[in-house]
Structures are given as structure tokens and as C-alpha cells.
Description:
By secondary structure, this protein is α/β, with parallel strands linked by helices. 37% of the residues lie in helices and 20% in strands. It starts with a strand and ends with a helix.
Amino acid sequence: MTQLSASILAADFARLAEDCRRVLAAGADMLHFDVMDGHFVPNISFGAPVLKSLHAALPDAFYDVHLMISHPLQYAGDFAKAGADLITFHLESEDDPGEVIDAIHALGCKAGLSIKPGTPAGAVLSYLSRLDLVLVMSVEPGFGGQKFMPMALDKLAFLREACAERGLAPYLEVDGGVDAVTGPQCVSAGADLLVAGSFLFGAPSADEAARALKQA
Ligand code: DX5
Ligand code: ZN
């Protein structure tokens, strides 16, 4: 079954834990924690102290941390300590990807590598065997509520085949503009983990929204 990661960027920050509890009860498998530094992306979101508080309120949730920051090597430790289970960083960040992967694993977390819409999927191949997850961005990182870019589908299909050829099975996650129409398209193309923010938190029924994505 397809897994669902709820992007808390679309949550009500004044009732963060409550809103997260609601989407987890509706069927989300994990919480997607979008970190933005105002440098790698033109927006600022939240950092490790927020994760620490959320983790204290919901200790059993799985935390899928997406670092949209220029220096993941410098901050990965803070997020691991705050409760991250999986840390994904960007290939386009300023640090050496191999070094960041090793650092995340040394912190006891799973490691994911993400690519922006302009980066070809082939750029992750040399790291594939060391990764627990590859995240294909289907919008320019920085903001929730954007329109899905269909070129992500070709990247997912390319990566699904590349993994099969190599006998590897990292999660293939897709992030940005995922809804009841684009979610199933991503799953057909090869995704097994969907990130959803506005579609899930903004839905009249979170149960129905989660069901539509997980049955994709
Ligand atoms: C975008 C973030 C996404 C975003 C997704 O930079 O990485 O996780 O919150 O939001 P929706 O699902 O609303 O496109
Ligand atoms: Zn994200």
C-alpha cells in the first residue's frame, strides 16, 4: 500500500500537535517536517526546537524531516537529537552529498536525498545504494499549495527502473501538489511514499483525503 507523509507546513501552527494527531488518525503514516532557511529557498519555516516540542507531544509518530537548507551537514545533528527518524537533504545544497549521507547514518537516522525540478534524476544514481529514500520534488521547494509539475512522473519512472535494475528498494517519495488526481499518477509512475500538505490538512474530510491517496 502507498504510504502517506503529512506535510505540517499546511497545519495550523497554533494547534500543531492537535492538527498532526488529526491527520495521523485519518491514516497518514508519518509527519513530513519541512525545514527552510531563507537561503536555499526564499522562505523560512521552522527549526529543530519545534520538532523537539512536537516529538514530545507525539512521541510515537515517525518524523520525515525535509531539509531545504544550504548546510545540511551543520544542522543534521540538531534534527536527529530533536527526534527525526529520517533526514532528507538536497543534492543542490552546498555540502558533499556522500558526507551528508554518512553523517545522517552515523546519527542513527535514515537518509534521503532530494532533487529540485531542474535537476535530472540521473544525478542521484551514484548515491542510490547508500540511500533509504529518494525525494523527487514536483514543485520548486519553498512553498506549499503549488501546482504539481508533471515532469516529476518521468523522474519517478526512471528511478523506479534504476532501482529495479540494481536490486535496490529505497522509498521513492514525491513532494508538491499531490492530490487525488496527481497522487495516483505518481504511484503509477513508481512512487511509494506521497507527501501531502494542503490537500490533506485543507480537506473537508481528512479521512477521505488520506484514503484517496493511500489507495492510489
Ligand atoms: C514545498 C514543501 C512541501 C509542501 C507540500 O517546499 O517541501 O512539502 O509543504 O505542500 P503541498 O502538498 O501543499 O504542495
Ligand atoms: Zn517537503
